[in-house]
Amino acid sequence: MREAAFREQNKKRWQHFEQLLSQPRNVDADQLADLFVQLTDDLAYSATQYPESPTTLYLNQLTGKVHQLIYRNKKEKKSRLITFWTQELPLIFYSMRLYFLYSLILFLITAAIGAFSAAYDDTFVRLILGDSYVNQTLYNIKNGDPMAVYKQQDAFEMFFLIALNNIKVSFQVFAMGVMLPLIGACVMLFYNGVMLGSFQYFFHTKGLLLFSAMTIWLHGTIEIAAIVLAGGAGWRVGNSILFPETYSRADSFRLGAKEGVKVLFGLIPFFLVAAFIEGFVTRHTEMPTVVKLLIIGGSLAFLVWYVILYPRKVAQNA
């Protein structure tokens, strides 16, 4: 069947669907289900016969509206909060796995850039970390307590401020990905990666690389991982804007933003745990090395399981 004939044959029915969708409160669940079945049949035929045509794009948009309406009207179970953490978020993690990988690779590259820059330019660390922080750290090293910066505030106050700051940073990474698709998230990841690399190299020059790493990564394992994940979510949204594929740009953006925001809110507990460790645990720099290794190793094992292994299992069983 020619595309013009296909459109003419179904035109009145599609117009009727549009009228129903313009007054969604008057459409019951059975009508929505019937609409969805008919439209998906039409879309499947159109996508097969006329894959690049405006008709296929139109049907894709119309079907998407019905799907969104069904999802919006669906009654949520009381276990919704549980399924978010056990099913929904892991599935989103799995679907975004490549974005997370790209984000991690960029972060590691920029951390290396930060370290090399600090190695070849003595002023670079001060440029990135600030004179006051560097001077304070040098003073702490001279007094035999290099990590004293983690002991200067009350533990609870430190926990609150760090949690707030980390959540703000994650939202900034995500927002930059929306405002400057792909580039914005890269800029934020670049800055944080360079800062970490120069920071660690600074302690290396003082012969304290291992000691600083064993202290910083107590909370940094989860904190840095969460920032990388937020960067991946920002890339996902940016990609949905630049490359909408079969969706309209607006629908693609809504879908990408919806998934990205879910990741952001899903990362809040990560930042709270990291802030708790930094506020209440990291300050105990004298704790045995084996305890530090257990905390760092446990954090890393959890991240590998919840971000990589478990999502794969959920996707395979879905």
TrEMBL record:
Protein name: Uncharacterized membrane protein SpoIIM, required for sporulation
Transmembrane segments: 99-120, 173-196, 208-235, 263-281, 293-311
Transmembrane in keyword set: yes
Keyword terms of this UniProt record: Membrane, Transmembrane, Transmembrane helix
One of the Pfam families matching this protein, by short name: SpoIIM
